[in-house]
Amino acid sequence: MARKIIIDTDPGQDDAVAILLALASPELEVLGITCVAGNVPLPLTSKNARVVCELAGRPDTPVFAGCERPLERPLVTAEHVHGKTGLDGITLPEPGMPLQDTHAVDFLIETLRSLPPGSVTLCPLGPLTNIATALTRAPDIAGKIAEIVLMGGAYFEVGNVTPAAEFNIHVDPQAAEIVFRSGIPLVVMPLDVTHKALTTRARVEAFRNLGTPVGHAVASWTDFFERFDMAKYGSEGAPLHDPCVIAYLLKPDLFAGRHINVEIETVSELTMGMTVADWWRVSGRAPNAMFMGDLDADGFYALLTERIARL
Ligand code: BDR
Ligand code: CA
């Protein structure tokens, strides 16, 4: 039986590739896509999610708009990375499929309450505002969630949006704190992993050479956002952060990490949103997250290319 997932996202080219990977994979049943403000504001993320579903030939996927700003802090966006639309790199048709009327947080609560405990895995790919709001409004759903597999944080790589913090956690640290203290089983894909999921010319050309509209779109998106990370890091390519979450559901053996304690910095402006990860187990605090540190990048790109080819 396919594993039921809900993707919570702020597309974003790498979010888009993650959504495509999930929709291409029969092992997963995408119950819905909940959108949040992050890389770009909510009207764009909830439009982009539908653009991606239509590109995948899956306009039947329910897409919900959620929270338009972080719990306590002003919204920080990342147009400098993802472009004005959030999906710059290729112009795709305006979506014809509707946005659902239900708020994303209501969808999360209602869906989790309606299913037996442990049947749904949440896959957050952006700031954790929707998930934290659902947990705060309906604490009973915590026991219903099988697992949360999320992209966020960093330990060895420290930060990307500030010297100390990764974007998704930095944008809504209060929400991240709620999720990391929830007691729900967590698997975390920090920059330590995603910075190993680097595109190369050969990997991008493999997408383009599929000769399909989806392969062409993925190559165009990666070409677009590569320029920013290559200039910043001097690397050969750019990290495909968010598909790591979906790849983990399909092939967990591609990843290695440690079950450790991770706390979120919510007080200091200097280090706001830092994931204080006890990698060396020196704090004595109880582990609350499987914090990944390593990735088989060739295996990851082989999986991704094979699945994108199916769309
Ligand atoms: C994360 O921030 C966003 O820009 C990406 O989509 C990814 O989820 C990486 O820090
Ligand atoms: Ca994202």
Automatic annotation (TrEMBL):
Query: Mind telling me which InterPro entries this protein's record contains?
Result: I/U_nuclsd_hydro_CS, Inosine/uridine_hydrolase_dom, IUNH, Ribo_hydro-like
Q: Name one GO biological process term.
A: purine nucleoside catabolic process
Report whether Hydrolase shows up as a keyword of the record: yes
Q: Which UniProt keywords apply?
A: Glycosidase, Hydrolase
Gene3D superfamilies per record: Ribonucleoside hydrolase-like
For this chain, one GO molecular function annotation is: uridine nucleosidase activity
Per the database record, which ranges form the Inosine/uridine-preferring nucleoside hydrolase domain? Answer: 5-301
Q: Which GO terms describe its cellular component?
A: cytosol
Matches recorded under Pfam families: IU_nuc_hydro (PF01156)
PANTHER family linked: INOSINE-URIDINE PREFERRING NUCLEOSIDE HYDROLASE, URIDINE NUCLEOSIDASE
The name under which this protein is listed is: Pyrimidine-specific ribonucleoside hydrolase RihA
Q: Which organism is it from?
A: Thioclava atlantica
